[in-house]
Specification:
Low-confidence stretches of chain A: 379-394
Order of helices and strands of chain B: HHHHHH
CATH superfamily of the largest domain in chain A: Glycogen Phosphorylase B
Number of strands of chain B: 0
Structural class of chain B: mainly alpha
Strand order of the largest sheet of chain A: 3-2-1-6-7-8-9
Mean pLDDT of chain A: 85
Oligomer: heterodimer
CATH class of the largest domain in chain A: Alpha Beta
Structural class of chain A: alpha/beta
Largest sheet of chain B: none
Number of helices of chain B: 6
CATH architecture of the largest domain in chain A: 3-Layer(aba) Sandwich
CATH topology of the largest domain in chain A: Rossmann fold
Mean pLDDT of chain B: 89
Order of helices and strands of chain A: EHEEEEHEHEHEHEHEHEHEHEHEHEHHH
Number of domains of chain B: 1
Largest sheet of chain A: 7 strands, parallel
């Protein structure tokens, strides 16, 4: 199948949507599809072989911050040319409501359209003056996908209709095998041993973001560290330099803060800990960190929030503890640190459960959506919307 | 008798000084009042210029002469500017509209593309005028505000509360840099 993927945000700036498009493209290519991606991009910046530039992204105030989008006559012309030359069976746009290439592609495409909605955007467009322009473009979409329940709810509230839920994928193979970081023992090497080898608990995520729940873990570590003189804590992720301000001075040397690390080191970090902790307080519609840790086969200890409970199959693929309760975290961690067999079981459970989130599986689900819309919207029934039809003729 | 005359003379001086002072005060109050009126007039002109700019942008967005991405971007920025009522939010929304307008209008080929379509040249001119008007109106308004605030800071004005119940006018601080446009 010839698939055209449209990314609305500039390729050079790392972001969830860009990563999703890249990984989906690679997975679809892996499944034997013919894929081309169009994305805003600086002309000099290197793009992967399957991607073409839809024009330079322009920084512009949008939704309360500055977004880098591609719009205007030139971008529209580039999209039209890409569509013409690509002769796609399916055009799959991402975030079609954003005023960028995706919306332009909806407007100009003749091929059946599939759209993926990523964000839970609280902004109501129902009464907006742009509703007409959006509506015309969005009505052409035959298959709508939401990456999370929250994104689906927003979509239904603001645009009506419905969407199928297909979560973000994880490139499981990329996470499955890796060396631990230098100086870290690596996990699952049998018993944790005596006082000098008390195990490692790991955390990954933004350290200054309240809902990631790092303070809960730090309080629990205070208790755990006093009982286990060899226990260490590994924190990975961006955040302020004073994250340890509230931690006992005596314990600080047993906590390592790595800050923001490369993708490769992130994978190694998952392989460096005995217990991986996700103490989130809520708000996480879909835990990418969790599925990555599962792909790495980490023994997971996570908050019992609905999204995590469902990803971890009610505790089969990871131990759950009461949200925001450091004592519950301590009990769970002690059990896991004391029982190598439990860690082995959770690790195996995580590796099994994460297969449902592997990009290969997810891309196959997406391809099934393509198949579904393909025959229904085959070319030119009369009355179909023509792109840019002059007024009076349309 | 002598004493009475002397007293009368002193009284005349006191009365005339008081009279002069009262006259001076009323002149000062009148000046302040004129300044307040000027602020109000300038504010009305500024509001009109801002509303006009949003209206022109919305018209352009819904004209069907732009690509939909640009249309959505413009329409949402104009809509936000028109809906914001709380002062800080309004300043932010109007600044955003200025930014969006520059990003859209200063793109290569925008002028040729828009003016090459029916009704395009008129819209282009209107847009240029509307952006310029906001720029001018805001400068005149802030100028009036600055003078008024200066006048109200004077000791006499504060002591005698010459400004009455009139609120201290606030500056309107936004990014109103008009887009670079062909004449």
């Amino acid at each position: 199948m010839r698939v055209g993927l449209v990314c609305p945000y500039t390729w050079e700036v790392p972001g969830g949507v860009q990563l999703h498009v890249a990984e989906l493209a690679e997975a679809l290519i892996g499944l034997g599809h013919d894929v081309s991606v169009i994305t805003p991009s600086d002309d000099e910046a290197p793009l992967p072989p399957y991607a073409v530039s839809g024009g330079k992204a322009i920084p512009v105030p949008y939704n309360g911050s500055v977004a880098r989008l591609a719009f205007g006559f030139l971008a529209a012309a580039r999209v039209r040319r890409w569509l013409r030359e690509g002769a796609f069976d399916i055009v799959h746009v991402h975030e079609p409501a954003a005023p960028s290439l995706s919306l332009l592609a909806c407007w100009a495409a003749d091929a059946p359209l599939v759209a993926t909605f990523h964000t839970a955007n609280p902004r109501s467009r129902a009464m907006s003056a742009s509703a007409a322009a959006l509506q015309t473009a969005l009505e052409k979409i035959s298959g709508r996908i939401a990456v999370s329940e929250a994104a689906r709810t927003t979509l239904v509230e603001h645009l009506g209709g419905d969407a199928v839920l297909i979560p973000n994928g994880v490139p499981v193979a990329k996470y499955a095998q890796s060396e631990p970081l230098p100086g870290w023992p690596g996990r699952l090497d049998g018993r944790l041993g005596g006082a000098e080898r008390g195990g490692v608990i790991g955390f990954l995520g933004r350290m200054d973001e309240q809902r990631k729940g790092l303070p809960v873990l730090l309080r629990a570590f205070g208790t755990l560290a006093r009982r286990r003189p060899g226990l260490r804590l590994l924190l990975v992720g961006p955040g302020p330099s004073d994250v340890l301000a509230k931690v006992d001075k005596g314990l600080r040397e047993r906590i390592t803060v790595l800050g923001k690390v490369s993708e490769a080191d992130k994978v190694r970090a998952y392989h460096s800990v005995d217990v991986f902790c996700a103490p989130n307080l809520g708000g996480e519609s879909f835990g990418m960190v969790l599925t990555e840790a599962m792909a790495a086969g980490a023994a997971i200890l996570a908050s019992d929030i609905a999204a995590f409970r469902s990803v971890l199959r009610d505790g089969e693929a990871g131990e759950l503890f009461r949200v925001g309760d450091p004592d519950a975290l301590v009990r769970g961690a002690e059990r896991m640190l004391d029982e190598p067999a439990l860690r082995e079981r959770l690790s195996a459970g995580a590796r099994a459960a994460v297969r449902a989130y592997d990009w290969t599986t997810v891309a196959a689900d997406v391809a099934a959506v393509y198949q579904t819309v393909l025959p229904a919207a085959r070319p030119s029934e009369p009355g179909r919307l023509a792109p840019a039809s002059p007024p009076g003729l349309g | 008798m002598e004493v009475f005359h002397a007293l009368l003379g002193d009284l005349a001086i006191v009365v005339s000084v008081l009279g002069l002072f009262a006259f001076y005060i009323s002149w000062r109050a009148g000046r302040l009042d004129r300044l307040h009126t000027r602020v109000e007039t300038a504010r009305a002109a500024l509001d009109a210029a801002l509303v006009r700019r949003s209206a022109v942008v919305l018209e352009l967005a819904s004209s069907g002469r732009l690509d939909p991405a640009t249309a959505v971007l413009l329409a949402e920025a104009a809509q936000d500017a028109r809906r914001a009522d709380e002062p800080d939010a309004r300043e932010l929304a109007e600044s955003h509209l200025s930014g969006v307008l520059r990003a859209v209008v200063e793109q290569d080929g925008f002028h040729q593309e828009l003016t090459g379509r029916p009704g395009g040249p008129e819209l282009y001119t209107e847009l240029r005028m509307a952006a310029k008007q906001v720029y001018l109106a805001r400068r005149f308004y802030n100028d009036a505000v600055a003078l008024t605030r200066l006048a109200r800071r004077k000791r006499l004005v504060r002591l005698l509360r010459l400004s009455g119940r009139a609120e201290l006018p606030d500056f309107f601080e936004i990014d109103d840099e008009p887009p670079k446009m062909a004449a």
